[in-house]
Amino acid sequence: MEKICGGPCFLYFTLLLLLPLLLTAEQIFPSQIKKNCTYVITIETTCMVGAETSNRVSLRFGDTNSNEIVVRHLNTKLLRKVDPLQSEVVDVNMARRPFQACMVDQFVVTAPCVDSSICRLYLKMIGSDEWRPGFAQVRVLGASSHLSSGFFHFRRFMPRYVWHGADVCDREVTPFGLSNKTNVYVKIP
C-alpha cells in the first residue's frame, strides 16, 4: 500500500475540524465574562429612639434578569455620612460608625454589573440590638446609571438573621394604580 499523505495531512485535517470549535469559543467566552460596576448604596436610619445599630448588616439586590449581588458586612464599606436635612457630608473627622440614628450612610461597592434595572433589595441584620432603617437605594455609577434602583422604604424595626426587603420586579400598571403580578401555581396530580 502506498501512503498518500503522512503526518502533515493529519495535522491539516485536524486543524480544519477544530477551527470551527475555536472560532465558536472566541464568541462565547467574552460574553460570559461580566465586567464590574461601581455601586453607591445609600441607607437612612430613622430618628426614632433606639433606631441605631452596631450589628453587622448585609445587603442583597438584583435586577429583573435574576442577577443577584450580595454585599456581606456592609458596615466595613462606609464611604461617608450625609446629614439628611442639609444633604451635605458630615465632618470626616467624626467617628466612622454607620447606622446611627438620624443619619444617612453611603457605601461604595464594586461588583459584577446588572443587566437591567435594580428592582429588588433586601437587608439582613446579624446581632442582638435593634435597627430601624428608613430607606435604601442602590445607584449604579457611570454609563449604566439608568439601571439604578428607586427608593426601598422600610420604616420598621428589622427582624434578625433573615433577609427582609422588597421585590418590585413584576409590577404592572393598571387603571387602579401599580399592582404586583401574582404567580398562580397549579398543583398537578
From TrEMBL:
Keyword field contains Signal: yes
Signal peptide (from-to): 1-25
InterPro entries: Embryo-specific_ATS3 (IPR010417), PLAT/LH2_dom_sf (IPR036392)
TM helices/strands, residue ranges: none
Keywords (A to Z) from UniProt: Signal
A Pfam cross-reference name: ATS3
Entry keyword Signal: yes
Listed name of the protein: Uncharacterized protein
